[in-house]
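Narrative summary of target 7.
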Amino acid sequence: MKKIRCLIIEDEPIAQEIIETFIGRLPFLEWVAKTNNVFETYGELSRNTIDLIFATLKCRKSPGSNASNLYRNARLILHCQPH
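Modeled conformation, tokenized:
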């Protein structure tokens, strides 16, 4: 079975760890990379094929209101809330 390739966009280290643990528990998910800002995300999306993005609605280190224009390359996006 082909694994779903995942990218984590999260600026909180604890939240990154929680999402990584979740991905690691599901055999059909593969953690590819994690970033904590939009600039790193652009690089990862240009280097990797991403099927699923786990992202906060608004990273504090991101310019503008959100990074939704980055998501065109992913098939699925799961927005995470830290609270």
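The chain has one domain: 4-80.
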